[in-house]
Structures are given as C-alpha cells and as structure tokens.
C-alpha cells in the first residue's frame, strides 16, 4: 500500500514538473499566432483571440531567417559529426590500448571539462585572430572539433565492448583502421547517439562565440540572428516567437529520432568507469 501511494505521489510530482516545463513552450507557440498588441496586453490568454499566420510569413522580411537557419544547420552538423568521430576514436584508443601515459592523457581530457569556458575564451579569441580565421566558419568549427565530455563518455561506453571481438578481428588479419570503422563504430551507436544529441544542442544554441567571431551578417548564425528582432524602441514579439518556434524543430527531430539510443547510451556509459 505504501509503495502504491509513493508511486502515485511520484507520478503527480513528475506531471506537475512536466507541466511547469512545457507550459512556457506551449505559450510561446500559441503567442506566435497572436498580434503584438495581444501579446503585450495586460489581460493574457493562452489561445490567440485573433488567430493570424502573418508572423510566420513576415519573419523572413524582418531579417534573413532562412539564411541564418541554413548557416546554423551547416555549422551545427559539421561540429556534431567531427565531435562524434574524434570522441569515438579517442575513446577507442584510451579504453582499448595500453600505453605509457594513458592515464595522464585521460586526466588532461578530464581537466578540460573542469575549466570554465569563460577562462579559455580570451586565449582562444587571440588564437583565432593570429590564424586569420575571424569572420569565417573555421573559427566556429575547428576549435569545437574535440570535446572532453564526448571523449569521456565514449571511453566509458567503448570500455564495455568485449575485447574478444577485437582480438578475433585482428587474428583474421583486420587492421586497426578496419576494426575501428567496421566493428567499433557500429557497436558504439548508442553512445554515439547520446553524444550527437548533446553536441547538436550545444552547437545549435551557442550565442556568445558566433557573436564574437562572425562579423558579416550573411554568415551569422540563428541564435545571434534572433537578437535582431529587438529594435531600439520596440520588439516584434510575434515574429520572434514564430522564429524561435521553428528554430526548436531540428533539436526536437534529433532527439525524437535518437531517443532510444540516447537513453541506452547514457545507461551504458554509467555502467563501467
């Protein structure tokens, strides 16, 4: 009886937390179909009193939404693919190869996760200037191609893969390149999915770094472009909510597609340290 009461109480708490979390998103989507006067009114309603779609039609006229969306999609996919590949190959080496200094090297990887991002922004910005990468996508993609979090998680995940399969492949004459791409990568798909979701989300919503290194408006990313809805004296909230609602769609698609692998990858990474 006590267990049943505890289960009901836990479900009620989870439902309340879910409502609190989802309600602002629902309000934003509903407000994207409202007029600005209704959004700014003192008396608020969840559903629009006057349903309009002009915010979605005119938002590309307010700023080049489609161009910014395409820029963000390109940069985010490039960063995600590179991080997934480098994290997997580094995790494979650190978990399946024994060499002098392996633990020290892994310690350096963990150390990068403990240093606040704001501490590294100045030396990284200076490096970008010296290399002549300012106002180019190289400044966004190359510094982000290695992830301490990704390497750590992939090391934990690949460590659970049986060594017997790798040894059998070596006995059959497979080289390390073949073993990694044909055996390790397919078997690590759950861990890869979890890293891909995290990295896609982080890269998609990144604001400060693109704002600092990209100067040309046509090259700017969507997170920075959304700021352009804020005028000097007023803000087009309807168009801003419409653009924000559309900008969330790629993240939702990525999570829904890889949801099962994401959960399995997180669970597998926590099994063995």
Structural class: mainly alpha
Can you write the helix and strand succession as a string?
HHHHHHHHHHHHHHHH
Helical segment tally? 16
How many individual β-strands?
A: 0
Assigned CATH architecture = Orthogonal Bundle
DSSP helix fraction: over 70%
The total tally of domains equals 1
Shape from CA axes?
Answer: globular
> Biggest β-sheet: count, sense, barrel?
none
- CATH topology description: MetI-like fold
CATH class: Mainly Alpha
| Relevant CATH superfamily | MetI-like
> What is the CA-atom radius of gyration, in angstroms?
23 Å
Give the terminus-to-terminus CA distance.
Answer: 38 Å
Give the amount of beta strand, in percent.
Answer: under 5%
Low-confidence stretches: none
Q: Report mean pLDDT, rounded to a whole number.
A: 86
Task: Characterise the protein shown here.
By secondary structure, this protein is mainly alpha-helical. It has a single domain (64-269), classed as Orthogonal Bundle (MetI-like fold), CATH 1.10.3720.10. The protein has helices spanning 2-31, 36-39, 54-62, 65-96, 102-114, 117-131, 138-141, 148-158, 163-171, 176-187, 189-204, 208-213, 222-225, 237-247, 249-257, 259-269. The longest helix has 32 residues, at 65-96. It is globular. The model has no long low-confidence stretch (mean pLDDT 86).
């Amino acid at each position: 009886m006590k267990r049943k009461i505890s289960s009901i109480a836990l479900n009620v708490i989870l439902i309340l937390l879910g409502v609190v979390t989802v309600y602002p998103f629902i309000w934003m989507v509903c407000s994207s179909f409202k007029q600005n006067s209704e959004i700014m009114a003192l008396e608020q309603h969840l559903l629009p009193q006057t349903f309009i779609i002009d915010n979605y039609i005119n938002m590309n006229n307010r700023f080049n939404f489609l161009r910014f969306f395409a820029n963000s999609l390109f940069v985010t996919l490039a960063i995600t693919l590179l991080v997934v590949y480098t994290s997997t190959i580094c995790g494979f080496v650190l978990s399946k190869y024994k060499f002098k200094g392996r633990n020290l090297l892994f310690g350096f990887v963990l150390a990068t996760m403990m240093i606040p991002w704001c501490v590294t922004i100045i030396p990284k910005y200076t490096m970008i200037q010296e290399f002549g990468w300012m106002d180019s996508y190289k400044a966004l993609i190359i510094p982000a191609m290695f992830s301490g979090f990704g390497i750590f998680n992939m090391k934990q995940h690949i460590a659970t893969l049986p060594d017997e399969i790798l040894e059998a492949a070596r006995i059959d004459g497979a080289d390390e390149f073949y073993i990694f791409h044909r055996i390790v990568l397919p078997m690590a798909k759950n861990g890869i999915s979890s890293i891909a979701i995290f990295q896609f989300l982080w890269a998609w919503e990144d604001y400060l770094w693109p704002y600092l290194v990209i100067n040309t408006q046509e090259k700017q990313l969507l997170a920075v472009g959304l700021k352009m809805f804020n005028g000097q004296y007023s803000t087009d909230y309807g168009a801003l909510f419409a653009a924000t609602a559309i900008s969330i769609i790629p993240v939702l698609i990525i999570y829904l597609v890889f949801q099962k692998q994401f959960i399995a990858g997180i669970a597998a990474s926590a099994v063995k340290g």
